[in-house]
Design brief:
single chain, 3-stranded parallel sheet, Rossmann fold, 5 strands
Length: about 100
């Protein structure tokens, strides 16, 4: 998929590029629900909390790999679940494994 970058302005000049894929990723997850048991999401973005919670509620496993210190606070609510909680890990823990 190709998606155009957005350029965000700050103080009258372009300072940051942004290209959100949240909706597209969520759409692909929902289209393919019957094809997987576990979602491995490489993002700590709290915007994905709703889809993670939905997947947990329908008995899917959810693993969220995020940069150290960059897990959205929205996920804290999911950590309070008694059963079928998500599993979180910092992406740097995978570094040696992926080399």
């Amino acid at each position: 998929m190709v998606k155009k970058l957005k350029y965000l302005m700050e103080k009258g000049r372009y300072c940051r590029r942004k290209c959100d894929f949240d909706v597209e990723i969520t759409k692909d997850i929902l289209i393919n629900l019957d094809k997987f048991d576990t979602l491995l999401l490489f993002s700590g973005d709290g915007d994905y909390k709703a889809i993670a919670e939905y997947l947990l509620n329908i008995k899917k496993k959810v693993i969220i790999a995020h940069p150290f210190g960059a897990r959205g606070k929205e996920y804290n609510e999911l950590l309070k679940r008694e059963i079928n909680r998500p599993y979180f890990l910092t992406a740097n823990r995978l570094e040696n494994f992926l080399r």
